[in-house]
Write a structure and sequence with these properties.
By secondary structure, this protein is of the alpha+beta class. 29% of the residues lie in helices and 37% in strands. It contains five helices and eleven strands; from the N terminus they run βββαββαβαββαββαβ. Strands 2-3-6-4-5 form a five-stranded antiparallel β-sheet, with helices on both faces.
Length: 205
């Protein structure tokens, strides 16, 4: 296999929902693909509007590839009984750019912290099991500036190295933002070095 596994990360592409009941309490989990904190806020607002009378709207999400961007919320449940178990379900699948919100309707019987941990993690896991996991390439983003007469050269390199065009402003002077698979980054820069009229700047954001 020529492409290293490290060139890719796992995520989900489609939202999913799953339900679990325990001692009268109903748990409904929603898994969403997200790319930013703004995506998370929109999904949480949408889920709360679907379940305005729920007792709790607990969640966890993970973003990016360095394991540093995540957030958890117990939303009134005992500390550590909801958000962390949901994050555990996400990490158990080794996925990122994923949000799971678990809505709880209290059934009148206390489940205790161990029962809550089990219920939240299980419901989150069920939601992640009902949507396909997909491999996405890990990309280094470059901003290219070039004269429109160089367009065919740039597009040839983009096609040859399976780059992803993220933004394209074609005028007399063109601006293009592309994603380069990390293992092909050196080859990409080598090819560009033959053309001094094409300026390439790595996007650090």
């Amino acid at each position: 296999m020529s492409t290293k596994a490290a060139d890719f990360f796992l995520t989900i592409e489609k939202p999913s929902v799953a339900e679990f009941k325990d001692k009268g309490s109903k748990f409904v989990a929603y898994a969403y693909p997200i790319k930013s904190a703004d995506d998370f806020k929109a999904a949480l607002q949408k889920t709360k509007s679907l379940h305005p009378k729920a007792s709790h709207h607990c969640f966890a999400y993970r973003l990016g590839l360095d394991n540093n961007i995540f957030r958890v919320s117990d939303d009134g449940e005992p500390s550590g009984s909801a958000g962390r178990p949901i994050l555990g379900a996400i990490d158990g699948k080794e996925v990122t750019n994923v949000l799971v919100i678990v809505v709880r309707y209290f059934g009148g019987t206390l489940l205790g912290v161990p029962g809550l941990i089990n219920a939240y993690k299980l419901t989150a896991s069920l939601a992640l099991q009902t949507t396909p996991l997909v491999q996405k390439p890990i990309l280094s983003v470059y901003e290219l500036q070039f004269d429109y007469t160089q367009t065919n050269i740039v597009m040839g390199i983009v096609k040859q190295l399976n780059c992803e065009i993220l933004q394209n402003e074609t005028q007399l002077f063109c601006l293009m933002k592309i994603g380069v698979i990390q293992s092909k980054e050196a080859e990409f820069l080598h090819k560009l070095s033959d053309y001094h009229t094409i300026a390439a700047k790595k996007d650090k954001t």
